[in-house]
Design goal:
Blueprint: H1 3-12, H2 18-30, H3 33-38, E1 45-46, H4 47-54, H5 58-66, E2 73-74, E3 80-82, H6 84-98, H7 103-129
Antiparallel strand pairs: 1-3, 2-3
Helix pairs in contact: 1-2, 6-7
Domain HTH merR-type: 44-112
Protein name: MerR family transcriptional regulator
InterPro entries: DNA-bd_dom_put_sf, MerR-type_HTH_dom
């Protein structure tokens, strides 16, 4: 899998492997500012800003990391940085948690939803090739 495929794959997989995270970091660093605005994987949001946008506490976001739903990239100073894609996953987790779903179960549901969406996307691509 080349670097561009890894970045694309990492966006669709809630829990990133270490090599996917490294590929996303390298791709983000090499992209132009205009591309970063459109890149759902660009780690643009700090912990505080992400929590503010979602209306959650930083502890909630850390708990999503502990549950392996999202693994934020780290800045050179070691601070967590979140992408728009990760914020969407966190918003879905909050929605499920607010409805009474346990956090671990909510994370598993989101991972399964994401895997299903990816499988459907791949099936559609394969159908269009034929």
């Amino acid at each position: 899998m080349d670097q561009q495929d890894q970045v694309s794959h990492s966006r669709r997989t809630p829990h990133r492997r270490a090599n996917d995270t490294a590929a996303a970091t390298a791709a983000a660093a090499s992209s132009s500012p205009g591309q970063r605005l459109d890149d759902e994987d660009y780690p643009a949001y700090s912990m505080g800003r992400a929590a503010e946008i979602l209306g959650v506490s930083p502890a909630f976001l850390r708990s999503l990391g502990a549950a392996k739903l999202i693994e934020p990239l780290r800045s050179e100073g070691g601070h967590r940085r979140f992408s728009r894609y990760q914020l969407r996953l966190a918003a879905r987790a909050r929605e499920l948690a607010d409805a009474g779903t346990a956090l671990e179960a909510a994370c598993r549901i989101i991972i399964l939803e994401d895997q299903l969406a990816e499988a459907l996307r791949i099936n559609e691509e394969l159908r269009q090739r034929d």
